[in-house]
DNA sequence: GCCAACGTTGGC
DNA sequence: GCCAACGTTGGC
């Protein structure tokens, strides 16, 4: 795989189900349970997306992401993680006890994929959604677009850096 | 392929 | 708890 400049993402998680503190304890985790095709396709390798005729942006090993607490008080970007592996089969689709169980999937033909991510850091000061919304430079973030519910979103380097700045780095 | 009904997301 | 917006499902 060729070296390339990192790309940037935003990954949402409800802290009640998986918080940045849990992420920090785990160090690494599989980002499982994503059940939205657009979000899934970001985690599938770009070669595969190209083969499928869907050459959208794809995660690459080494990309960085903002860890976002959704349905939280307040909703906020709370830290940073790193993409360790892409295009991993999501094991929760085979687990009948999981909320993310997918009866139509089989091991031979999995439907859902995930990435492995590594904890990088907490922001010293979380950046709440209201502050993101108030920042002119962040107006184009997918997060702020009306009706945007994507749990995995591409973020520009400028946006990533600006959030870091707002966090007091 | 259309589209109504339904379930989910997520801010407030 | 409310509700707008969205994605998915399934009948036709």
How would you sum up this structure, described in words?
With 169 residues, the chain is of the alpha+beta class. The protein has helices at residues 20-26, 37-43, 46-51, 129-134, 157-166, and strands spanning 8-13, 28-30, 64-69, 76-89, 113-128, 152-155. A six-stranded mixed beta sheet has the order 2-5-4-3-1-6. The chain starts with 7 loop residues before the first strand and ends with a helix. It binds a DNA duplex (12 and 12 nucleotides) through loops.
Concise summary:
The chain has helices at 20-26, 37-43, 46-51, 129-134, 157-166, and strands spanning 8-13, 28-30, 64-69, 76-89, 113-128, 152-155. It has 169 residues and is of the alpha+beta class.
Helices and strands, with pairings:
Blueprint: E1 8-13, H1 20-26, E2 28-30, H2 37-43, H3 46-51, E3 64-69, E4 76-89, E5 113-128, H4 129-134, E6 152-155, H5 157-166
Parallel strand pairs: 1-3
Antiparallel strand pairs: 1-6, 2-5, 3-4, 4-5
The protein binds a DNA duplex (12 and 12 nucleotides) through loops.
Mean pLDDT: 93
Task: State the end-to-end distance.
Answer: 32 Å
Radius of gyration: 16 Å
Proportion of strand residues: 25-35%
Profile the largest sheet. 6 strands, mixed
Approximately how much helix is present in the residues? 10-25%
Low-confidence stretches: none
Q: Please state the overall shape, judged from the principal axes of the Cα atoms.
A: globular
Number of DSSP strand runs: 6
- Count helical runs: 5
Along the chain, the helix and strand elements come as EHEHHEEEHEH
Going across the biggest sheet, name each strand in turn. 2-5-4-3-1-6
């Amino acid at each position: 795989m060729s070296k390339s400049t990192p790309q940037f993402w935003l990954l949402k998680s409800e802290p009640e189900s998986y918080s940045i503190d849990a992420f920090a304890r785990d160090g690494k985790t599989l980002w499982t349970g994503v059940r939205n095709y657009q979000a899934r396709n970001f985690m599938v390798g770009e070669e595969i997306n190209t083969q499928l005729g869907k050459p959208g942006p794809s995660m690459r090993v080494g990309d960085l992401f903002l860890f976002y607490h959704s349905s939280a008080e307040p909703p906020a970007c709370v830290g940073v993680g790193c993409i360790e592996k892409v295009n991993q089969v999501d094991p929760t689709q085979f687990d009948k006890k999981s909320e993310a169980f997918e009866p139509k999937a089989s091991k031979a033909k999995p439907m859902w994929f995930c990435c492995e991510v590594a904890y990088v850091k907490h922001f010293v000061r979380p950046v709440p959604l209201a502050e993101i919304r108030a920042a002119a430079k962040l107006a184009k973030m997918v997060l702020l677009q009306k009706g945007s519910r994507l749990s995995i979103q591409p973020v520009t380097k400028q946006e990533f850096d600006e959030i870091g700045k707002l966090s007091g780095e």
